[in-house]
Every structure is written in C-alpha cells, then in structure tokens.
Write a structure and sequence with these properties.
With 134 residues, the protein is mainly α. It contains three helices and two strands; from the N terminus they run αααββ. The protein has a domain at 47-133.
C-alpha cells in the first residue's frame, strides 16, 4: 500500500509535456495578439511627440521673429536666446542634430536662416504622409 502512494504521489507532482506545450501555445497566441498593438502605440506616441516638438519650435521661431525683426540663424540661437530651453531630440531619429531647417522665402521681409523646421526622419506616418512634410 505504501508503494502505491509513493508512485501515485510522484506522478501528481509534475506537469506532462502536453500540458507544457498547451501553456506555451496559449502564451504565444496572447503575445502575438498584444505585440502589434504595443508597437503601434509606440509609433503613435513618437508621432505625437514629434508634432509637439515641431509646434513648440515653430512657435519659438515666430516669437523670435516678432521680437527681433528677423529669423534666427540657427536652432542653437533659439536656445541661447532662451526662446526654448534646449533643442529637443527628434523622437523618430533620436538625435538633436537631425532637424531640417528651412530658409525664409525670397520675398520675405525678415532676414535669417531658420524660417521653419521639420523632422529629418525618413518614412511615413501612420496617416501615410511623409515625416519630412510635417
């Protein structure tokens, strides 16, 4: 009788290979459902951060031009003149040097080199537009 309890007790303690495979399959299925949503939310948050950074820098450029009567010569000048605390990092490229500055149109009354700023990131946003066109 003690022999039967020993065998029975030893068998109940572990998992079978089939049980482990079923659990792994369920975990893989749940991961395959959750992972794309997670990566899409990361991409959308980067796009939102880019829109915010562009709006802040464009507002600072406009304020600089209104105060000084000219556009800044560089983004560094905006930071030096304290219109922005520092040049933000482009959330798509991860670099502060990736910003693309646009010069004023030829018929503009004000001088300077930075009329507008855009992201230097290649690729398209979730809405299909190029990041370089924002």
């Amino acid at each position: 009788m003690a022999d039967k309890q020993c065998k029975r007790g030893g068998r109940d303690r572990g998992f079978t290979l089939i049980e482990l495979i079923v659990v792994m399959a369920i975990v893989a299925l749940l991961t395959s459902i959750v992972a794309p949503r997670y990566f899409n939310s990361l991409a959308k948050s980067r796009e939102t951060a880019l829109r915010s950074s562009l709006a802040v820098m464009r507002d600072a450029i406009d304020q600089f031009a209104a105060d000084k009567g000219r556009y800044p010569e560089s983004l560094e000048e905006l930071a030096t003149a304290r219109y922005i605390r520092e040049i933000p990092e482009d959330p798509l490229t991860g670099s502060r040097e990736a910003w693309v500055t646009l010069t004023p149109p030829p018929d503009a009354q004000a001088t300077g080199q930075v009329f507008d700023v855009r992201s230097g990131a290649a690729g398209r946003a979730s809405d299909g537009r190029l990041f370089a066109d924002w």
